[in-house]
Amino acid sequence: MTGPPLWKEENPTSLGYGNPIKFWSYVFIPKDLDPSKKYPLIVFPHGGVHSDFSTYYTHIVRELMAQQYIVVAAEYRGSTGYGKGHYEKIDYGGLEVEDVDASREYMIANCEMVDQNRVGIIGWSHGGLISLMNVFDHPENYKVAYAGVPVSDLVARMGYQTQDYRELYSADYHIGKSAHDNLEEYRRRSPAWQAHKLKTPLLIHTNTNDDDVNVLEVEHLIKSLKAENKKFEYKIYEELPGGHSFNRLDNRKAREIRLEIYHFLENYLSPPRAFKTVKNLEKAAYKF
User: Fold this and answer.
1) Residue 228 belongs to what domain range?
2) Among residues 271, 286, 287, which one has the least CA distance to residue 42?
3) Most buried among 31, 136, 146, 193, using CB within 10 Å?
4) Model pLDDT for residues 14-71, shown as the tens digit of each residue
5) Position 173 in a domain
């Protein structure tokens, strides 16, 4: 696992928008890979409105690397820890999606071990939204996607969240208006309103006691995908401990659910050391 970010990356995709930026990305490469072979890549956007790729994800990265996935995690525009300028470049559901796809593009261009035909994207919460928007906007770039408790409908979200939260989006450096004043812009940034674009194999998870991304948002996404006759998989878990973090916890039940995720990814990415059981996962990725 890496320490500090390995590089500053010019975002080539955003150049077409007249808005070039530099951002940092973490790269995780298992130590025992054979440089003469190709390996699958997982693109892993972090969550939050303003946040970063922290040690909160350490155990998940360990599990992915134990299966011999290469992982890239972009500190896309709006991420914290890089100063006010980067923070105020936030473009939730907008150019941040292009930043994350640019990290995929960078890895293919600069890491010869990456198999460009075996790229998946996973994310939880806001990272789930970014994962969804990437496969909606760039279906040719990803073989599979996973979205855990994904922010799915910003219009509904503005209705049940607090005023302080709404002000994050209506700030002058962000959307600049409330959902009431610019409904179409909030819909444009919401996966539930873009469901007609899905072409990529997709797994969605949510939890009924999630007090961050209310299950009603994810239910709207699921119903929208069904209305568009899209093929995808999903599970709505009932009142599991942990709420919003239910399958990211480091406990037995969460590991069992993550194994379901890994089995889904395996079908499309064929990692060399795919887990078959929870015991395999624990033995490979943990020291007890």
Assistant:
1) 7-153+190-285
2) 271
3) 146
4) 333 455 789 999 999 999 999 999 999 999 999 999 999 999 999 999 999 999 999 9
5) no
Q: Which token pair is 25?
A: 């990305």
Question: What is the domain-level CATH number for residue 216?
Answer: 3.40.50.1820
Can you give the length of the chain in residues?
288
Count of domains in the chain? 1
Amino acid found at 160: Y
Dist. CA 83–CA 79, nearest whole Å: 9
Q: What is the pTM of this model?
A: 0.93
Strand bridging mode 7-10 / 22-28: antiparallel
* Phi, psi angles (nearest 5°) of residue 12: -70, -30
Q: In what order do the strands lie in the sheet with 39-43?
A: 7-10, 22-28, 70-74, 39-43, 114-124, 144-148, 202-207, 233-237
The answer to whether position 172 is within a domain reads: no
CA atoms within 13 A on the CB side of 202: 29
Indicate if the alpha-carbon torsion angle 260, 265, 266, 268 is positive or negative.
positive
Query: Is residue 120 packed enough to be buried (19+ CB in 10 Å), middle (13-18) or exposed (0-12)?
Result: buried
- 3-state SS class at 44: coil
DSSP E strands, 138-185: 144-148
Q: What is the largest CA-CA distance in the chain?
A: 55
Q: Is residue 59 part of a domain?
A: yes
Residues 6+ apart with CB under 8 A from 113: 29, 33, 35, 37, 38, 39, 70
CA gyration radius for the chain?
18
